[in-house]
Write a structure and sequence with these properties.
mainly beta, 4% helix, 9 strands, Thrombin, subunit H, two-stranded antiparallel ribbon, 1 helix, 6-stranded antiparallel barrel
Length: 103
């Protein structure tokens, strides 16, 4: 039986499809490249007469690639510096989400 393509996370995260390469730098560690899917959803929240617009950049990548990262570690994507807002959030499939803030 052949496993579905999404069972092979490396094949899923090929940069010639929709993934990209990012540079991660753990505090006190060595920078390295990882692959992931970047998105930056837009949020519009209203509370009474007040309105707030915001984006939440995030990178979805292999959990094993970011297991040593912690909040405030640096991530560089397409020349833009970001910092982790929290520790990587594993989703139980071998993937993790990095919630980011522009640096």
């Amino acid at each position: 039986m052949v496993s579905p393509a999404w069972d092979d996370l490396d094949a899923f995260l090929q940069v010639d499809d929709f993934a990209l390469e990012a540079m991660v730098t753990p505090r006190g560690g060595v920078s390295r490249q990882i692959r992931g899917v970047f998105d930056e959803p837009y949020f519009n929240a209203q509370l009474g007469e007040y309105e707030a617009d915001a984006t939440q950049p995030r990178l979805t990548c292999k959990a094993a690639d970011v297991a040593d990262l912690r909040d405030r570690d640096q991530v560089t994507i397409n020349g833009q510096n970001y910092y982790l807002l929290s520790n990587p959030q594993e989703d139980g499939t071998g993937m993790a989400v990095l919630a980011l803030a522009r640096g």
